[in-house]
């Protein structure tokens, strides 16, 4: 990979990782509800899951979806349904339970990693990285490089959203304000589906 292509890919990885989407919306909500430390497994799981997804696309999974477009379309709807479920869970988070505590818990490392496989934006990122920035010469080595760099760029950029959420915790100390915030995050997560699914469908 040439230095110019490497710089271009790092810029692509940064922009796609730091811009709003399902992962960052959930990290903002998790940082606000559970704090930075408890959200760290969620962040690391996203990075690992995305890295494995890029590897899988580079090693042939992307070609499988080109040959089986129905399977590709099914993933869109499964991902959309799961995101709607997560939006509902976020909207419910922070509501006081009978003991005065908070319902819910942050995503685990494995949950966050597995979520990338039904996250439409993650698929767009992985397919874009392989088809646009991976030279055919020494292809396998370049796929490994692209996947590793994506994970390295992804984690610190996502932390911006988690830190932003954790900084809001004092302002969100009121259960009523926290509930409104979580409902707003849930609505943003639902809204993020529209452009993602349009792009995802257009990429077929």
From TrEMBL:
Keywords: Cell membrane, Membrane, Transmembrane, Transmembrane helix. It is found in: Cell membrane. The keyword Transmembrane helix applies. It is a multi-pass membrane protein. The chain crosses the membrane at residues 44-65, 77-95, 107-127, 139-161, 181-200. The keyword Membrane applies. Signal peptide: none annotated. Coiled coil: none annotated. This is LysE family translocator. It comes from Pseudomonas lalucatii.
